[in-house]
Amino acid sequence: MNELVPASGRIRNIAELARLAGVSAGTVSRALANSSLVNKQTREKIQALAREHGFRPNQMAKRLRIQQTKVIGIVVPLGHERRQHLSDPFFMAILGHLADALTENGYDIMLSRVIPDANDWLERIVDSGMLDGVLLIGQSDQFEAIERVAAWYKPMVVWGSLRPGQVHCTVGVDNRTGGRLAGECLIQAGRKRLAFLGDTLAPEMSERFLGLRDAAAAAGLPEPAQLGAHLASDVMADEIAAHIGRLGTEFDGIAAASDLIAMHTVRALADHGLSVPNQVSVTGFDDLPLAEQTIPRLTTISQSIPAGARAMVQALFERIAGADTESVQMDPLLVRRDTA
Fold it and tell me: Rounded CA gap, 309 and 304, in Å?
């Protein structure tokens, strides 16, 4: 075997390929990039040698040299719900749209599910040197940590609620208005004893509950009850079933914090002999694809997830380019189906 070629027959780096071709490493680098600075004959010779010996340039090393990784971090912080999984239908829905938009623009993704056990968890991510930007799915209970990093790290966009005066750039619906729409839907169905099913530790969920309270107050109804239910799938169904078993028909209108909670609620009501929507009306929040596949089909509040994901990626690209983008607050939409 040619002594310039490793025993494996594969070229491992540009230096080895340069020795084999009898040119400088810089010439090899330019030839592999198809640069016209290298004459056609030499360029084709180097490219043919690279193919023959199975050599592919280290794209990550190249990206780091030009201070661009072409990798975007998609981060799911779970400070408020540590047992929730990425297999949650909401995460899967928005992840799919984000990944499509990023890869179609030539970016790879690095996905992280983060339990924020250290105060500087977000600093460690953005300082890793591995990412051109970060997309956060949800604020969790980490609003202050996100604000702190956003004060100096520009290429970051967050799916979540917009608060007056906040620093970080968010994309999401007006959750309080969405909660009010759900409440108004229940009230229009003749429901007078309302409950909110879901925890309120995350800003989005808290705003949805406040919106339900707004609707009840405007209609002169008692303040809705808030019934806790985790978003973690391994405990959610049992918690909801326990609420329904204990309360029976104490409430005739239930606004769920998410579509998945609403689906489990409909199932629990049926298991206890209560008809939806004849005896109890139920609304969800998200408008996941599953919402129109359940029986009965789920009345819900649409977050416009596909449009929101596109807006997140667009805002991130603009921020990577140095622009200061404003937060985007979309209008929620009531999608009437069968449960309310």
Answer: 9
